[in-house]
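The records we work with from here on pair a chain with its fold. These numbers are not coordinates but entries in a learned vocabulary of local backbone shapes. To see the layout at work, look at the sequence and tokens printed below.
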Amino acid sequence: MRFTRLICLDHPYQIATLEQCQLKLFRNEPSRISIVQRYNRTERLYCNITIFKKAVNYRQILPTQVYDACRFLEDKMELDPITSYIHAAIKQYAPQLFRPCPIEGLYDASDLRIPENLTVPIFPPGDYYSEWITYNEKNQIGLRVQFYSSVRQSGIFG
């Protein structure tokens, strides 16, 4: 999976300050993602993840997944296969994000190198985008971000 675009929407946010939202593209290297936020004290945080695939236009391919981010970050929830894959990737490439609740302070996921061979195995080749929204129990938004990416099929040489 190669990330091609990153958009942080609707900021300034009500429960967090966005300090950096950037995607760096390189010709023969993996893309680098940087999202840095400073959260006000938030007891519970939730996350919605929606994944779209491009046909003629983008269509939702899976139901929106809703997660208790505190339980997700504390490893206290059962995960479906796709969420388990996302969880393992975040844990491998951004372990500093795994802290117990309450959510507070700096969450720094800067200059993350995501290898292009990291993709959910069930996703066929094509263009995708996913939208991630974090919010608290009062529906105050902490982050709203869209990740655009492409999955390419391996050629005959690997």
About this structure: The two ends are 15 Å apart (CA to CA). The chain has one domain: 2-151. Strands lie at 2-8, 16-24, 32-42, 46-54, 58-60, 65-68, 103-113, 126-135, 141-151.
